[in-house]
Write a structure and sequence with these properties.
Structural class: alpha+beta
Strand order of the largest sheet: 2-3-1-4
Number of helices: 14
CATH architecture of the largest domain: Up-down Bundle
Number of domains: 2
Mean pLDDT: 87
Largest sheet: 4 strands, antiparallel
Distance between the termini: 19 Å
Number of strands: 4
Shape: elongated
Low-confidence stretches: none
CATH topology of the largest domain: Glycerol uptake facilitator protein
Order of helices and strands: EHEEHHEHHHHHHHHHHH
Length: 316
């Protein structure tokens, strides 16, 4: 269930209440006239099944409540109410399959912002991956995957294309390109420093590395894995399930490739550098393609539920 807290202009409170009462899956409606002071208006509270949340938010925005008042949405972890159980049964579909598009856009907007923290995580993840590819150490590769934050901007690009939000697209692409660019430059310097300390050697890069050789040798499986990772990532994001773990799975195809490109560049191993770059671009492209198609698939699926969101007048 979701909990909505609305501040509504007094002249639209009745319309808002009617929209809520007419939407399936809603319950616990409370109207407090004149309770809000900034902005001034009425306070309206209600609970809604997650399956019906997106439709309700869409109708509230059509009343310009988001512009002239306020709409706040919270997840309800526990609701002990027979009426709430009935509301969830009334709403079509399943909560885990429901997509709240405004929530998705807000989440990806936050995760795709280029910040010092984001850049630091990206650089640290790539440096850890550099140690992993040089030592052919799978544990270090997994560690780098856990730290890498690039799934946020990738998801932001997918969401922006489906929802037609150009600002989110620009923000996400900037975070992705600048983040990877800064990480590769910093890791190249890191690799030269490690070589100066005698911890990295060019022979380590040239030796057989069976655990990590796939990173600079892209093949059809690279694209297959990227597509599967993209589908899993978007499903995880839209259903809010296992987001961190799916982010780790996606990082295996991106951060290590950027790290190997940086180390290869520091030693002038241009064949490996270009192979790693190709792997990185191939996987990012596959993930984005799969993510966009997944979101379009969700839109098409939920569009079949149109007409089932309204209660009969006799049940309001």
């Amino acid at each position: 269930m979701l909990h909505l807290r609305l501040i509504t202009p007094p002249d639209r409170t009745e319309a808002v209440a009617e929209v809520i009462e007419s939407t399936v899956g809603t319950t616990h409606l409370v109207v407090l006239p004149g309770a809000a002071r900034d902005p001034r208006g009425d306070l309206v509270l209600c609970d809604v099944a997650r399956e019906a949340g997106d439709q309700l938010l869409h109708e509230l925005r059509q009343l310009n409540i988001d512009k002239d008042g306020s709409i706040a949405v919270e997840n309800i972890d526990l609701s002990l109410s027979k009426r709430a159980d009935e509301a969830e049964e009334e709403a079509p579909g399943e909560p885990a399959d429901a997509v709240i598009w405004e929530q998705l856009a807000e989440a990806t907007h936050e995760e795709s912002t280029l910040t010092i923290t984001y850049a630091a995580f990206m650089i640290i993840a790539t440096m850890i991956a550099a140690c992993g590819v040089v030592l052919d150490n799978a544990i270090l590769i997994v560690g780098a995957m856990a730290v890498g934050p690039e799934f946020g901007p990738v998801a932001g690009v997918c969401t922006s294309l489906v929802e037609r939000r150009p600002r989110l697209a620009v923000r996400s692409l900037a975070a992705l390109l600048i983040g990877f660019g800064a990480a590769i430059v910093a890791t190249t310097v890191f690799s030269l420093a490690m070589d100066g300390l005698g911890l990295f050697h060019q022979s380590m890069l040239d030796d057989p590395r069976p655990n990590t050789s796939f990173i600079w040798n892209p093949d059809p499986f690279s694209f297959v894995v990227a597509v599967l990772a993209g589908v899993a990532g978007m499903l995880s994001l839209t259903s809010a399930k296992s987001g961190a773990l799916v982010g780790v799975a996606i990082s295996v195809t991106t951060v290590p490739a950027g790290a190997n490109a940086a180390v290869a560049l520091s030693y002038g191993e241009f064949a490996q550098m270009w192979g790693s770059t190709e792997q990185l671009l191939l996987n990012l492209g596959g993930i984005m393609l799969a993510g966009v198609l997944t979101l379009y698939g969700w839109k098409a699926l939920w569009s079949t539920q149109r007409g089932r969101w309204k209660r009969p007048a006799s049940r309001r």
